[in-house]
Amino acid sequence: MERSSCEAVSTRGSRPGAGVPQGSVVADRSKARGTRGQRQPAQRLPVAEVCVDVPLAHLDRPFDYLVTVEQDADAMPGVRVRVRFAGKLVDGFLLRRKENSTHHGRLAYLERVTSAERVLTDEIAVLARAVADRYAGTMIDVLRLAIPPRHAAAEKKPSAERPPSPAPPSTDGWQ
Predict the structure, then answer these.
(1) What digits encode the pLDDT tens for the residues 91-125?
(2) Distance CA 151, CA 61 (A)
(3) Hey, how many other C-beta atoms are within 10 angstroms of the C-beta on 15?
(4) What gap in Å lies between CA 126 and CA 166, rounded to an integer?
(5) Predicted confidence (pLDDT) per residue in 22-64, tens digit
(6) In the chain, where are the structural domains located?
(7) Would the pTM count as exceeding 0.70?
């Protein structure tokens, strides 16, 4: 079953002057945000499709966010990210990067890439989606069980080289 992508729409700035006291010198919200108004989307594949950690069944779909130039190198499919969703910061997994979004409104930016370590492979994402669909669960619930929790100290250590794969067994003895 093909699922359509749904996008995270930022509510920030939906009302002109929201959050700015009356009589304030700052009337433009982009100036009130400081450096946030200066974020630039990545040149290549600026849209990230994110599975957000919201355990509500009616929100069990990917949401689109913009990737900044600074996050471009680390924001790869399978990494953990932090995004603003419904006014709160929530964790999520970056599923894929794409050139355009089907959403016609303004997209919110990724808040940060929590870990540049790729923890979600394409195969696990497809399997998690299939398990969630088959057993009437949500994808994030399946991913929470399939992927170990983050250990920041372990991520700082250099990863050991994997040993070479063993050679396939010989079929000479079976004849």
Answers:
(1) 999 999 999 998 888 999 999 999 989 999 999 99
(2) 26
(3) 9
(4) 27
(5) 333 333 334 444 455 688 999 999 999 999 999 899 999 999 9
(6) 38-148
(7) no
Write out the DSSP string of 26-89: ---HHHHTGGGGG--B-SSS-EEEEEE----GGG-S-EEEE-BTTTTTT--TT-EEEEEETTEE
Q: Which amino acid is at 35?
A: T
CB count within 10 Å of CB 38 equals 9
**Which residues sit opposite 48 in a β-bridge?**
65, 97
Q: How many residues does the chain have?
A: 175
Residue that is written with structure tokens 């400081």 in the block:
34
Amino acid letter, residue 11: T
Task: Report the CATH superfamily, name and number, of domain 38-148.
Answer: PriA, 3(prime) DNA-binding domain (3.40.1440.60)
d(CA 150, CA 153): 9
Instruction: Name the nearest CA neighbour of 159 among 125, 116, 124.
Output: 116
Let me know how many helices (H) and strands (E) the chain has, helices first.
4, 5
